[in-house]
Amino acid sequence: MIGINRKLQALEKEGRYIKVGLIGAGQMGRGMIAQIENMKGMRVVVTADINEDNVINAYRHAGIERGNIVSTNNKEEASQAIELNKVVASTKALLVCALDEVDVVVDATGVPNIGAEIAWNAILNRKHIVMLNVEADVTVGPLLKRMADASGVVYTGSAGDEPGAIMELYDFADAIGFEVVALGKGKNNPLNVEANPDTAAKEAEEKGSSPKMLASFQDGTKTMVEMNAVANATGFVPEKPGMNGFEAGVADLPELFQLRDQGGRIGKKHVVEYINGIAPGVFAIVASDMEEVNAEMKYLKMGDGPNYVLYRPYHLTSLETPLSVARAYLDGQATIAPDAGHIAETAAVAKRDLEVGEYLDSIGGFTIYGTVMEASEAKDKGALPIGLVDKNVKMSRTVKKGEIITYQDVEQTVESTIWRLRKMQDHDWK
């Protein structure tokens, strides 16, 4: 199989390149633009953000001269600029989806409803869509993937994001015939379900990050959502709501993921899990019932078996996203997608006591955090998916701290795109 780098080089020699449309010029988007400017056969030709200055600064920091950046929300003007090998800065996300010149759309907004709207419109316009928005994916990804398949385009998560990195390990192990026992990631910080932008403010300032984003990592929501995406891609499930969150080092993982009656700590195989102590890595636990394979693994210093760990100690977030762009365009393949269907759900849980009439805020905020569970259990409970939570959702019943919020506990005051798509998904859209 020809490497992506050589395929991109071939495009460049032909005088062609993949035209990328990006939505969201925050930290992820800026890094992606800069990385792609170093690549052959690809360019971010248009970027949209609610703050146009963010786009211009992103392009300027990637080495693009101001005179080659055209600011416009007009489709014809944007098309003309791209034809002249200039790049476009816009404040209109849907312009990116509508431009004929764009081959692949990337959503780097991080907002579930906006991500759902972007993906929907990209697919309607027959564009490949790369999601750096796992929250939207776990909420309506199964529907969006079916739409993309029917439209002949690729719906995919991103390389470099932890679910994508885990999926690459899974695909490798599965392709060469290993049984994959478990899939997981390390958690960067101790679980604190009460974390909010105020408690995260000091550390966020020191790291130069958003307090809200940091809180979404600290309260576990991001970890739950990421492993939810892996579950929907592979059919693996969390062993229990919220997973176990074991403490372990990499060397401990093979024994830890043996069944309890064999001295391990799990009750069944084919699970998703997070581990405190191995961040920022991702892992796959694999096994084989072939004597020769086990002998070879021992010779290769992979351990004594019966389980072995494949561990990747890094993931380069949006810097790897171009690989997913290239796979979609060149090979028609997804890095990670919900191929197994709606396997798991990340349910909204009350971060504090919530009273009738209160409005919820958002992921990483003051009112809710997420916990992952099997989709069938979430359905039985009537659990509200975390991706449906926004400022238009009002409490209609009192919910105590630590309780799962259900559909019956809330009232939606304004129906958003992601709510409409979720209704379609829940009603077995075909």
UniProtKB/TrEMBL annotation:
<dbReference type="InterPro" id="IPR036291">
    <property type="entry name" value="NAD(P)-bd_dom_sf"/>
</dbReference>
<dbReference type="Pfam" id="PF21135">
    <property type="entry name" value="DRL_cat"/>
</dbReference>
<dbReference type="InterPro" id="IPR048423">
    <property type="entry name" value="DRL_cat"/>
</dbReference>
<protein>
    <recommendedName>
        <fullName>Oxidoreductase DRL-like catalytic domain-containing protein</fullName>
    </recommendedName>
</protein>
<feature type="domain" description="Oxidoreductase DRL-like catalytic">
    <location>
        <begin position="160"/>
        <end position="321"/>
    </location>
</feature>
